[in-house]
Design goal:
57% helix, binds zinc ion, 148 residues, mainly alpha
Length: 148
């Protein structure tokens, strides 16, 4: 007697598929937007010491200054994946490896970083005095207030 064995839903493969579908590397529009936001946050110069001293007079204000230097609103999964991609991109400058050594998700992520960086460079200009990034078409630097 033969018994037809019907495949029961494999919970492990279903969870694996859900994890792959939710991977930040597969959501390229948001990944690119968050990469752009990380570049903007990284380009801000450190808060001037005079502002920090002023904030120290009011501790709640100091906490707000510290919070503003982080990457606000970027979900942790995207932030971790972007950190990995920035690291991978940095390694690529020192170690030559073929695009075939990368997974499709890594390659798509690096391409998203390139698009985000190109947008950042298109939309910003750098101050010749303090090197802070300013949004175009600013005429004076938002950080040192000198003419661009
Ligand atoms: Zn400046």
């Amino acid at each position: 007697m033969s018994v037809a064995v019907q495949a029961a839903p494999d919970a492990r493969s279903t969870m694996h598929e859900a994890r792959v579908a939710m991977h930040p590397g597969r959501d390229l529009p948001r990944l690119e937007q968050f990469a752009y936001e990380m570049l903007c946050a990284a380009s801000r110069p450190p808060v001037a010491s005079i502002r920090l001293r002023a904030a120290a007079l009011e501790p709640a204000r100091l906490a707000r200054v510290a919070d503003s230097s982080a990457s606000p609103g970027i979900p942790l999964g995207y932030e971790l994946w972007l950190d990995y991609l920035f690291e991978l991109e940095g390694m690529h400058r020192h170690i030559a490896f073929s695009p075939r050594a990368l997974t499709a998700v890594e390659l798509a992520g690096l391409q998203a970083l390139n698009r985000a960086r190109a947008r950042f460079l298109r939309e910003h200009t750098f101050c010749p005095h303090c090197e802070a990034a300013n949004r175009r078409p600013a005429r004076t630097c938002a950080h040192c207030h000198k003419e661009l």
